């Protein structure tokens, strides 16, 4: 069903919000590549330590995305209602929440860094290296969370350019500082951790400065923070469902064969990278839908849902066609190992075929996140994981289906999510108007 022309957002506006958001999403993975390249020249033990510690630290941003996505949803509604000061106030409270949660995580992280590193890497030099990096990098956690909150409220008021600048400044400084501290200062792996903290402090400082410049009250308001935590609870549970799926898939691939786990890692990282590309469209949808509902324009919000669904489908088809054409070339850039290359086709064609599905699913995720419909997203994601992904993945281990079984499970998960999202969006129950969703 086509959207009436009057209800369509110009493609330029959608991309104007999506492209800077993509830059923010891509900045951290690109910095980690630089960090990995620098540390990699120190030897296998520091590189292994960085790998283990970075996985632990990454769980913070993975599990606490409500500080960005939840804040965007609430701020966008208020911005759409013409209440910019109240939208910024959501950012103030999210920032306070980020500081409090971040300080708690620093304390807990320092206490459990050793046991967690040894659980992941076993006893030995790699675990010791991971602990030394992690104990330093943990001091940047409050700043990571402040940056997430800053991204949230600025996206909510339709400003995606400043977050891009702030994140790039911090990461560029850290990328330049990392080799200086690692090699010239002779700090080794610990120099990498210090550079990481510097990036987080600089970026967070810029976001705080932007918040102060808005001249809104900066005192904490517990009632607002509790409301944000209620939304955050649903997003955290949703995120845990994703983690359960992907950790299970990697574990089963590791028990299949060395070639299977290597192939799974390559295809999965490509999947994650393309998810960032498609997620930038979801962020744009989130901002625009939240604005429309805040302005009590539910017809416009429904039109946006149909519009971004079409964009997601087109982008997904383009990506699928591109990676189908690269099937004979791209895997060889990642590895020359024959066993891995023989396994890659077992996952590759699932990965290619799922791109159009992913394009629609991520776009609709953005629509419902913008509407603040986090409770539905939580339930639908958990149900899709329990019914679709996890049974197939663990059956693959028991029955020896290998990567075909694992990626069939991912396909079932995505198709179930697609079905539930389409039903929800068509029902219209998500389009609750008003400055605050009740």
Automatic annotation (TrEMBL):
It is found in: Cell membrane. This is MATE family efflux transporter. Belongs to the multi antimicrobial extrusion (MATE) (TC 2.A.66.1) family. GO terms for molecular function: antiporter activity; xenobiotic transmembrane transporter activity. Keywords: Cell membrane, Membrane, Transmembrane, Transmembrane helix, Transport. One of its GO terms (cellular component) is plasma membrane. It holds the Pfam family MatE. It comes from Actinophytocola xinjiangensis. NCBIfam families: matE. The chain crosses the membrane at residues 50-70, 91-113, 133-154, 166-187, 193-214, 235-254, 266-289, 310-334, 346-368, 375-394, 400-419. It comes from the Bacteria. It is a multi-pass membrane protein.
